[in-house]
Amino acid sequence: MAGKSSNTMRAVVCRKIGDPTEAMTESSAIYVNEEQPRPTLSSSSGTSLRVRVVAASVNFATVLTVEGKYQERPKLPFIPGIDYAGIVIEVGRQVTDFNPGDAVCGVVDSNSGTLAEEIVTEVDRTYVGFLAFPLSFPAPISAKKKK
After folding, report:
1. CA dist., res. 95 & res. 19, Å (int)
2. How many CA atoms within 13 Å lie on the side-chain side of 51?
3. Which of 15, 25, 46, 82 is within CB 3.0–4.6 Å of 93 for a Cys-Cys bond?
4. What is the DSSP track for 81-112?
């Protein structure tokens, strides 16, 4: 669901270091900004993509970042989240491997979070398809053991 204007969107924003598990209130560390400015492609980098986020995870690194305990500490306020799956909306002028409508997944650096309706990311951090993310360890299919 888009923000109230065509230039805005919804995003989770961390306004201060704190406990991300607390209920969202006027004083909580995180809140949902209904009028977050939409990201735009950088005119200096022709190698970026604008992506509509379909899914993003909240993982241990995300929690540590909001708590101020992760090795990378983004400047406040920031949008948390490091990985995503989504659909390409727009491509930079030098992008040849992706087109609007492509299903993609990837990771972003700590300066641009994924808990938002849209993100801008670089092609070198983007992979084709939702299931194409390279894993360096065997991914468990189920946490429940068969007896």
Report:
1. 39
2. 35
3. 46
4. --EEEEEEEEE-TT--S--TT-EEEEE--TTS
- One-letter amino acid at 26 equals E
What separation, in Å, do the N-terminal and C-terminal C-alpha atoms of the chain show? Answer: 43
- For the chain, what is the radius of gyration of the CA atoms? 16
- The encoded tokens of residue 85 equal 């799956």
For the entire predicted model, the pTM comes to 0.82
Could you read off the pLDDT of 44-98 as tens digits, one per residue? Answer: 779 999 999 999 999 999 999 999 999 989 999 999 999 999 999 999 999 999 9
Spell out the domains of the chain, with CATH numbers in brackets. Answer: 8-128 (3.90.180.10)
